[in-house]
Amino acid sequence: MSLDEILARGGAALTVIMTLVQISPIKIYPWSWLAKAFGRAINAELIAKIDALEKKVEKLHSRDGEKEAIDQRNRILLFADEAVRNIKHSEEHFNQILRDITEYEAFCNAHKDFENERVVLTCARIKEIYKRCLETGDFL
């Protein structure tokens, strides 16, 4: 028996064994493992590019969240300035600014390094004004 015959019969036997194991109730899937390993080897460059793109998207998403938080902070500060100058606001406008405050505080809690000290007291003041307006009905 030559080496070629041994390899051919051994390869055929290995193929039959792997197929039987693949369809048996045992949770070992050699063909699936082999296909996955082969696919990863062929697509390694593409996988690396996708990973790099996912990191860029994540960074952009983080920047968008920070930009939205800054916009919320600006709306909160503007609203507070108007309230201090006794400019009346509607209840709907108060509700919107309270939603901004809630989202802004959630962002700040999730991002401890984000600058927040400017708005903490302002948010508390807006909530006090809102409570007073609820009690007196002093909305626009």
How is this fold's topology laid out?
Layout: H1 3-23, H2 30-42, H3 44-84, H4 91-110, H5 120-136
List keywords for this structure.
single chain, 140 residues, mainly alpha, 2 domains, 5 helices, 80% helix
In short:
With 140 residues, this protein is an all-alpha fold. Helices cover 80% and strands 0% of the residues.
Task: Give an overview in words.
With 140 residues, the chain is mainly α. It folds into two domains: 1-42; 58-140, no CATH class. It has helices spanning 3-23, 30-42, 44-84, 91-110, 120-136. The longest helix has 41 residues, at 44-84. It is rod-shaped.
Overall number of structural domains: 2
What summary fits the major beta sheet? none
> What portion of the residues fall into strands of 2 or more residues?
under 5%
- Spans with pLDDT under 50 lasting ≥5 residues? none
Terminal CA distance reads 100 Å
Structural class of the helix and strand makeup?
A: mainly alpha
Tally of helical segments: 5
Q: Give the strand tally.
A: 0
What's the helix-strand series?
HHHHH
Shape estimate: rod-shaped
Give the helix proportion (percent range).
over 70%
CA radius of gyration: 32 Å
Average pLDDT metric: 78
